[in-house]
Amino acid sequence: MKAGFYTDAGANMALHRNTLVILLALACIVIAALGFKMYRDEVQEPGVQINVGPRGLSIEQK
Fold it and tell me: How far is CA 24 from the centre of its chain?
């Protein structure tokens, strides 16, 4: 009876370990995505932005 208990506990620990690895990987992906977005926002090249929308043509200088 105790052998089954230890086997279930080992499987439970593996599940917790896998969950922690997945959460850590997701946190790294989110941090990398936010960092890339911040980088892209900071490094925008100066120039002219032309938008065509429902209200017509819009030209902005950056």
Answer: 11
pLDDT > 90? residue 32: yes
Q: What is the pLDDT of residue 1?
A: 47
Stretch (H or E) spanning 61: strand 56-61
Q: What residue spans define the domains of the chain?
A: 2-61
> Taking the model in full, what pTM does it have?
0.56
Q: Determine the Cα–Cα distance for residues 9 and 46; give it in Å rounded to an integer.
A: 59
3-class secondary structure, 57: strand
Continuous segment of H or E residues that includes residue 52: strand 48-53
